[in-house]
Specification:
Distance between the termini: 41 Å
Helix content: 40-55%
Largest sheet: 2 strands, antiparallel
Structural class: mainly alpha
Radius of gyration: 21 Å
Number of strands: 2
Amino acid sequence: SSGINAESGNNLPAIFEQIQRATGLPAGDFPNIQEFSETLKKCDFSKFKPMNQAMVDALDKMISTELPRLMAQVPQDQEVFHEEYMRNLNKREGGALYDDDTTPFGLGETLDILNSAVPINDYQYEFEQLGPDADGKINGTQAKKPMQDSKLPNTTLKRIWALGDYDKDGKLDIREFSIVKHLIKLKLDGHELPVELPKIWLEGLEIDDFRR
């Protein structure tokens, strides 16, 4: 639908911008325009098969629902770092963890955020606008656009989904959605994502607790 063909080389910037607006993909996910233009000149578009929308929809479902569920089953490969990190986080009672890292740009502020409860009320209206089902949950397709609006790379968004989908059912309730949005804000503010969710974020977060 974007009209990319052998004659599109001179119009690639506009085409990429159109695709970016339509899909919410970050600009960094697109190939180098000059190199892509040279590649197009070598393609025989008469041999390309037409797009199969059913396959595109199936792939979208796999990426938004099945892949996060699968990723959640993959063992963490940062166990040593995770154990040390969480030990320091859990024993910290206030102030910066390290005396030489009390600036607004260091680990101190990150830990302050991770030691504070998630402000669920801040995300309630946005969640309701997405149309949760009878169980008070939204699926991956519904959550995709508000997550991609952050312009974070898809690899980062996948990790955020895996952390936020606490009960690993491929859907988000209001608390899980709030965690996802809070993690996005954390990342956009320049902080690193936690290896696992802080305990204070999970207080009272029972699987059946927030069903309507």
